[in-house]
């Protein structure tokens, strides 16, 4: 699947970045994929374990955590769930700082809100806003620019949208041609 530049919109203000993408799933299915499939779509370059990551957990409740498990039981908490309203939205206290290190102090953490908004045709608009960068202190301006740039949240949402897309290319070409021939024969007989 190809995601066109117009399909991911991004916005910025002094202390926040926002972007959105539309996926061809219902809000409930989109919310569940976002949570339960996160290991499959979350970019490895945004984890501590990178290619040796074993699991990512998204504890679906207020007070729950988004965390990764790496080799030998390594654990890195990325965010704490502040609001959990399935299938409409979630708000996370973001504990990864400008230097890509975990920030356990809640007063120095930013906030990420993800909304799942119904669109026509059974689709969902996923809107993400990362705000409160200034709470991170030194490096906050650069961090906001990085997360709002092409390799930040827009890339993360693009990966999610690609994960949600129908996987037509997973079917072997011969099978696709065979199915098309069968349909053509059915049409010719009718």
**Range of helix content:** 25-40%
Could you state the order of secondary-structure elements as H and E?
EEHHEEEEEEHHH
Low-confidence stretches: none
Strand order of the largest sheet: 1-2-8-7-6-5-4-3
Q: Could you tell me the number of beta strands? A: 8
Q: What count of structural domains?
A: 1
CATH topology: Alpha-D-Glucose-1,6-Bisphosphate, Chain A, domain 4
Rounded Rg: 19 Å
**Largest β sheet strand count, sense and barrel closure:** 8 strands, antiparallel
How far is the N terminus from the C terminus? 33 Å
CATH superfamily: START domain
Structural class: alpha+beta
How would you describe the shape? globular
Mean pLDDT: 87
Q: Which CATH architecture would you pick?
A: 2-Layer Sandwich
CATH class: Alpha Beta
What percent of residues are in strands? 25-35%
Q: What's the total helix number? A: 5
Protein model, in words:
The chain has one domain: 2-Layer Sandwich (Alpha-D-Glucose-1,6-Bisphosphate, Chain A, domain 4), CATH 3.30.530.20. A hairpin with a 3-residue loop joins strand 5 (75-85) and strand 6 (89-94). It has helices spanning 27-36, 38-41, 140-148, 153-164, 173-189; strands spanning 9-13, 16-23, 55-58, 65-69, 75-85, 89-94, 110-118, 124-131. The chain has five helices and eight strands, in the order E-E-H-H-E-E-E-E-E-E-H-H-H. Strands 1-2-8-7-6-5-4-3 form an eight-stranded antiparallel β-sheet, with helices on one face. With 190 residues, the chain is α+β, with helices and mostly antiparallel strands.
Can you tag this structure with a few keywords?
190 residues; alpha+beta; Alpha-D-Glucose-1,6-Bisphosphate, Chain A, domain 4; eight-stranded antiparallel sheet; 29% strand; globular
């Amino acid at each position: 699947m190809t995601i066109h530049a117009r399909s991911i919109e991004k916005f910025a203000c002094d202390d926040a970045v926002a972007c959105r993408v539309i996926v061809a799933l219902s809000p409930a299915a989109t919310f569940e994929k976002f949570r339960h499939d996160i290991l499959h779509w979350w970019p490895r370059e945004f984890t501590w374990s990178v290619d040796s990551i074993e699991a990512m957990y998204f504890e679906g409740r207020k007070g729950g955590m988004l965390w990764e498990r790496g080799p030998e039981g390594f654990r890195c908490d990325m965010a704490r769930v502040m609001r959990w309203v399935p299938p409409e939205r979630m708000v996370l206290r973001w504990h990864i700082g400008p230097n890509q290190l975990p920030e356990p102090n809640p007063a120095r953490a930013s906030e990420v809100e993800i909304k799942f908004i119904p669109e026509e045709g059974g689709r969902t608009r996923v809107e993400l806003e990362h705000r409160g960068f200034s709470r991170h202190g030194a490096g906050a301006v650069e961090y906001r620019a990085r997360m709002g740039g092409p390799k930040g949240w827009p890339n993360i949402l693009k990966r999610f949208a690609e994960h949600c897309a129908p996987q037509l290319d997973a079917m072997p070409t011969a099978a696709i041609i065979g199915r098309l021939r069968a349909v053509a024969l059915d049409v010719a007989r009718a």
